[in-house]
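Retro notes
What went well: the complex prediction finally ran end to end.
Inputs used:
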Amino acid sequence: MTVGFVAGFASSLVVIRLDRIVRERFEGQRFRVPSRVYSTPSIIYPGLEVELADLRGSFVRLGYREAGSDGSVQQGQYSWQKHRVRVHLRAFEHPTRSEPARDVVFRIRDGFIEEILELPSGRTLGAVLIEPEQLGAYYGPDRSQRELVSLEDLPPHLVDAIVSVEDQRFEVHPGIDVRRIGGALLANLRAGGIRQGGSTLTQQLVKNFFLTPERTLKRKANEAVMALLVELRYSKREILEAYLNEIYLGQRGSTEIHGVGEAALRFFGKRVQNLSLAESALLAALISSPNGISPYRNPEGARARRDLVLELMAKQGRIEPAQRDVAIAEPLSLAAITPDPGDARYFLDLLRIQLSEHYDATVLSSQGLRVYSTLESRTQRLAAIALREGIEQLESQHPALVSDDPIRALQGCLIAIRPQTGEIVALVGGRDYRLSQFDRCTQARRPAGSTFKPFVYIAALEPRVGGPAITLASFLDDSPLEISTPSGPWQPRNFDREFHGRVGVREALERSFNVATARLAQEIGIGRVADVAHRMGVESKLPLVPSLALGVADVSPLEMARAYATLAGGGVRPQVHSIEDLVDTAGETLERRELRHKRVIDAGTAYLATSMLQGVAHRGTAAGVRSTGIKGPIAAKTGTSDDERDLWFVGYTPELVAVVWIGFDEPRSIGFASSRGALPIWRRFVGELTGGQIHGQFPRPSSIVVEDVDPITGARALWGCPDRRRELFLEGTVPEEVCPSGAARGSEDDGFQRTQERFFEWLRKHL
Amino acid sequence: MAAEASVTRTALASRSLASVVLVVWGWVTLVAGGVGLIGGCAGPLRGPRAEALRISQLGQVGDARHQASMRLVVEGLDAELASTPQRALSRYERAIQIDPGNPFAYLVLARYYAALGDSERALQHLDRAQSLLDPSTAVYRSAEPHLLGLRGWALAAAGGSADADPLLAEARRLAPSVWGDGRLEASELR
């Protein structure tokens, strides 16, 4: 009796312990759901070039499937013809840009989208959004991904299919099914080994939720007890829902697919509520051996098992024989597998760092947050390809750069932002994330080289009391210079080892003359140069030394992108950001980044700087940027640090700023200049992104006036001046000197010329 | 001799023609100069502008991208008129996504935030709109009352009436029917 009492007491303790485990799991957070990161949704509108929109690529990556030959296009399917693309877009939720499911037709002419029609109404649409692409997720150690679903969302035939094959007496047993266990025992005895399992859905759930997969008597006993406890405490609906979200359904790369919601997306590219009978049966079929009969690796096996499920459903009266026959006739139709190229991993790391202030790694890997980012999927892919292949090309052209040690390999980064909004649309922090996770765009600080020089010229061009230090018609002195510094005299030299004497301001920047720039910086004050750089977006500490003018300061590519974005934006500095919205599982917006910008440079000065940098791209050190025929406005600056250790290229258009940096993590000479190293990568990236035609223009602010000047003296050119060129000035800074020098200011000639110019300007404005 | 006479006649004819051309050119430039003087020296005509900017009247200008962006701007204004501000915001954001260089997308955002009393954001978007408009164009001039008025409205809301009053006064002068009340409604901008 004592023994019985002790045994009963011990058993009670065990049951109490198991019950506590069950309650803790069921009543706490049942599932760890990794947070997902999405690209920005892409917008398709009439007039867009089909190739640039990358429509088909988007559909494939999003898991859309080619429609069958019967003419119907179901949600998540598309049909592609030369002049007509029909797609049944899936609905998607987005904090500000949700879209309903839509059946639309894109009419295409000459490679451009001519019209977008909504079916069946035939209504013309001005634009449609394509859902954001998943860039990645923040996994926990198990790297499992699931899309949580509730039972109400599921089509009844999916539940029927799973129950029919996995546990047909689920509705009636108390957690364990003695009849089924007996049947399995008999079957296994007959087969001489384990061929059939007797586990109910509840037991499978308990095993996955609480226990290890080991096959021991103790575990089986615990499993049975816990299954009974689960059934006692929770309803059949709750158990079924937990099971459907927990069940393992296969592998995608290193990621485990759990739950029918995730599986529906991965296998069929559609939400679970839209699964057909045949698709539901296939998911049910996979449960017993997700990898063994994977429809990708073993389509025959998968199909045979699916048909078996359909037979069982019909046999159990869950579907009509006719339904079975139709479903069995349906071929397997699966979403394409698009392996994650890892392009966005540096960006994901950046987001993680930014989010870590409020959301630690555990939260990110378990709370199922949705991070809507600013990254543009196509832009990012092109950036990654341009950087990777660009570096490989440099190595093939210069074998001395190649290193067998990945740590000593030539590296690079590319960051692109929208100057008006500050959105990071592409970020590639290195040539291969698998080899090095160090993000050189945001974490590295390297000497800026000549990409720093525009700050000197902007500081000199800025309006101030008594007028700016220079105008674009001024001349600079590029003769030998020696500056005393605490560490001894400093004698800047030009890249070509020569001095050029008296040089125009434009020429000095276009040809990146060091001596003229260093002298100009001395004249206006290094402090003023640093102030301009800081205002425009450089946050790194800048040493107030004469050589700052030539870019000895260590800065990050991100900082340079922000600073040049200020120029592209007409002197308005954007707040650079990478997250648009952060949303929890309930759809509540936790964070939202608003567009923020601030005027930090006078609009006229910014325009003058842009004009100078357009000259750099047109005639100067960056002239090669157009060698592949890119058309449209480009402003750019090359930069090569001492000993050619860092190659920079910063270029911008009215709508995009992109910075390319090339170098070694342990700095050493590359052996050539930026125009041969970083420029070609920028050129390829922007060329492919824009299709060779850059849109927009840099608007000229009202504070800019245009005057003819004498190229020799910089004086205002009147009639009779032998040579002239048009030049831009801030209002009130036009040179007082005139050419020919003897002409009196306000002379008849001058007055006549000005009158004519005013007349034509007036005509231009008013007619 | 005949050849010499012919040459002389030709030379005379050429000279006469040149004289006529020069005289005509002289008159043209004189008239042009006069008009130029009126236009250039007398400064802009004083008094209200005929039309302050209305987004929907801008018509189908620019490339397809800009047009698509403009359609969304109009949709956004319609959404504001239908009292669905979130939808409006969504349309404006899409408009910027399609064409980040569309000044009118920022202009409507500036109005949106000014109406909400969020002066800081209104001014930020206004700066951006202004940086994207070309001042030499007729569109800029029709937008000018709004640029001035919105800045004045936002500054006034932020408590800077000393700076705001002259701006609002100028907006009122340029577009009295729109800026008479010191505000810009979505319907007035649409």
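What we learned: Residues 580 and 594 of chain A are 8 Å apart (CA to CA).
What to try next: split runs per interface for comparison.
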